[in-house]
Design a protein that fits this description.
- By secondary structure, this protein is of the alpha/beta class.
- Helix content is 29%, strand content 15%.
- The protein has 10 helices and 10 strands.
- The strands form 2 sheets. Strands 3-2-1-4-5-6 form a 6-stranded mixed β-sheet, with helices on both faces. The protein has a 4-stranded parallel β-sheet with strand order 8-7-9-10, sandwiched between helices.
Length: 330
């Protein structure tokens, strides 16, 4: 086990009582980035409340389809042919996650892939909170050149041996998370925990199994796409203008989303649509509201919202507003 560098803060005597009692540091490799892509390997490092490793676990998973970007993860169809299906490892995976905060680098991606696999298996992952180490690094103000895992690892002197191998990525993240957790505890930093809501239903589009081919090995999905586009019904209400702080949302308002959300983005967008709001894919001067949990980020949507003076609220506030949307005029 690597010794924490001088940049890390030693474990404080008084540990914050509000901090979680255990963590599951997770990494999954997948066939791609879209909502219909599949997990092909998974690793979990279980940590105690102060970030010490208790044990670790790793498995391959047969996706029953093209393995995707083999040049990244190195897992070919031949390697995965004899691997267990996700339904075969779902119980063991769940036991590793049960009662713990899921920790991952870009946690929304890992959580959504895991939640979808469990939904396909008609089960629920026993995860109620997640912690993204990118968000924690920002909270701590770490002097990183970027927020890649390799940069976080280098900051704490953790040596990465096999990038994009789930077990080694999880090990590296566990080693880097420990000093980050201790620094947060020593500084009284509130951990950036987000709620995890399991999917309760799922339907897959048919995906042909291929040994090669597809779009760049992604089985026909564009590598830059996180989800297939969905055509929504036109909002029947006129846009009443911008949201005003302290007032209610009104049917017809144009709402955009940016960044990590605790509720699956598509489910959140569905709730907004059902409430009579217009879900916008981009920011313009007509946008009524931007929903983001990271208002200090430099994403194009947040930047444009600030340029246009578009109101910004976080997901929790938006959830409250959704409960009482004002009907459209007439």
């Amino acid at each position: 086990m690597l010794e924490d560098r001088a940049t890390a803060v030693s474990s404080p005597t008084q540990w914050p009582a509000a901090y979680p009692k255990g963590y599951a540091v997770v990494d999954v490799e997948t066939t791609g980035l879209a909502r219909d892509d599949r997990i092909i390997s998974a690793a979990v490092y279980r940590l105690d409340e102060r970030g010490e490793v208790e044990d670790h676990w790793y498995t391959l998973v047969n996706p029953e389809r093209d393995p995707g970007p083999v040049w990244i993860h190195g897992l070919t169809s031949e390697v995965l042919e004899g691997a267990p299906l996700f339904t075969d490892i779902a119980e063991e995976f769940a036991a590793r996650l049960d009662g713990r905060v899921l920790v991952a680098h870009n946690a929304v991606f890992d959580w959504q892939m895991i939640a979808r696999e469990y939904a396909r298996a008609k089960r629920e992952a026993p995860v109620r909170q997640r912690l993204c180490t990118i968000a924690l690094s920002k909270e701590l103000g770490l002097p990183l050149p970027n927020f890649k895992l390799e940069s976080l690892a280098a900051h704490y002197g953790v040596v990465q041996q096999r990038a994009h191998h789930a077990l080694d990525d999880a090990r590296v993240l566990a080693e880097a998370f420990r000093p980050s957790l201790r620094a947060a505890a020593a500084g009284g930093v509130r951990l950036p925990l987000l709620e995890c809501r399991p999917l309760t239903e799922w339907s897959d589009r048919p995906v042909p199994r291929q040994s090669s081919g597809g779009y760049g090995g992604y089985g026909g999905y564009r590598p830059s796409s996180w989800r297939p586009s969905r055509k929504r019904p036109t909002c029947p209400y006129p846009n009443p203008g911008r949201y005003e702080d302290g007032k209610r949302l009104k049917q017809g308002m144009r709402v955009a989303f940016s960044g990590d959300t605790s509720v699956d983005r598509e489910l959140l967008e569905d709730r907004a649509t059902e409430a009579g709001l217009h879900v916008a894919s981009s920011i313009s001067r007509l946008t009524s509201l931007l929903v983001t949990n990271d208002p200090e980020s430099v994403t194009s949507k947040v930047t444009k919202a600030r340029q246009f003076g578009t109101p910004i609220v976080d997901e929790a506030a938006f959830g409250q507003l959704l409960r009482d949307v004002e009907p459209a005029d007439g």
